[in-house]
């Protein structure tokens, strides 16, 4: 699903109260980290990721890596925090993506 502007705005509003679940630190970006991130998004559909001060990667590098290596979409980039969205594989966990499709 490719997100339009109104859909991204809705997701940003939904993510406002969330705390970051994942972080990028000095270990950097690895396929294992991306697999864990994808697994968490299959359960929640919307999460925040923070880039720590000791990380070698910039926010734009993390964003490019995530989007190029997976089907995860970056909804918002605020400072060193990314808001990520992915449609859940399990139809029972797709409450948020069903709301997004209606917009």
From TrEMBL:
Coiled coil: none annotated. One of its GO terms (molecular function) is RNA binding. PROSITE patterns: CRM. Keywords: RNA-binding. Residues 1-97 form the CRM domain. NCBIfam families: RNA_bind_YhbY. This is CRM domain-containing protein. It comes from Limosilactobacillus gastricus DSM 16045. The lineage of its organism: Bacteria, Bacillati, Bacillota, Bacilli, Lactobacillales.
């Amino acid at each position: 699903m490719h997100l339009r502007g109104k859909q991204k705005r809705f997701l940003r509003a939904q993510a406002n109260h969330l705390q970051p679940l994942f972080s990028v630190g000095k270990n950097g970006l690895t396929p294992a980290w991306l697999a864990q991130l994808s697994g968490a998004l299959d359960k929640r559909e919307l999460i925040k990721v923070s880039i720590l001060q000791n990380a070698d990667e910039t926010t734009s590098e993390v964003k490019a890596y995530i989007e190029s290596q997976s089907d995860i979409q970056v909804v918002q980039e605020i400072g060193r925090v990314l808001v990520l969205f992915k449609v859940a594989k399990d139809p029972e966990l797709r409450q948020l993506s069903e709301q997004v499709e209606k917009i």
